[in-house]
Amino acid sequence: SGTPWRHSIRYDLSIGKHLNAGIRTEKDPGEKLLPYHPEYPVRFNYPDHLSGYLLLKDFGFIKKVCLGDFHICFGRGITLASGGSFSTWKDPFRNATLSSSIKGNTSMSEWGYLRGISVQATLSGLTLDLFFSVQKMDPSGVDTDVQGKASFTSFSNTGYHRTSSEISKRGLLEVKSFGITVIYSNHWIRAGIAS
After folding, report:
1. Cα angle vertex 111, ends 29, 173, to 5°?
2. How far is 73 from 98, CA to CA, in rounded Å?
3. By C-alpha distance, which of 40, 64, 38, 70 is closest to 52?
4. What is the predicted pLDDT for the residue at 94?
5. CA–CA separation, 140 vs 155, rounded Å?
6. What is the pLDDT of residues 145-175, one digit of tens each?
7. What pLDDT does residue 189 have?
């Protein structure tokens, strides 16, 4: 539906030690440069892929607040990854520290991140992480049964919106994710819980 050229813009900004921000846009070969996005609330022709974040750090007991697109990684042994997938570590006790991470999305990939808000706070040995995300995603392997009900097998991770079939699947799925982790550590004990 578009030109054979690939266009991308990546820009990051740091102001002091308290503020980081970034924006990413991309048009793959064969896509329109500024298509209409029915999944966005504001009616405007956006770049095919648009991602950005604002990360505020180290304001008293609030260690991080990230607005926009972000990555998370929580857990020991069982890890919750950014795209909502789970993985396991072969040796969870090899590293002495508990993994608890929130960072802005710096990737050009069109999937595998969360979109919303995340907060990390610490107080007297406790670390609390909260996140909430609402993101429109493209389904892959879409099938319709005899009664007309549609189903899908996975999320599309190509990011391609070149043909009418690919464009018709853009943002069909709304994925809501939220969670909380609490980690306590001192000189003798380190424990955490995630929900």
Report:
1. 105
2. 10
3. 70
4. 46
5. 5
6. 667 777 777 788 788 888 888 888 888 888 8
7. 85
C-alpha span between 131 and 82 (Å, rounded): 11
CA distance linking residue 48 with residue 42, whole number of Å: 15
Question: Do residues 47 and 26 touch, judged by C-beta distance below 8 A?
Answer: yes
Q: Which of 189, 171, 192 is nearest to 180 (CA)?
A: 192
- pTM over 0.70? The answer is yes
Using DSSP, how many helices (H) and how many strands (E) does the chain show? 1, 15
CA distances in angstroms from 39 to 53, 121, 135, listed in the order given? 19, 32, 9
25 with 8: CB under 8 angstroms? yes
> What stretches in the chain show pLDDT beneath 50?
88-98
How far apart are the C-alpha atoms of 87 and 94, rounded to whole Å?
Answer: 16
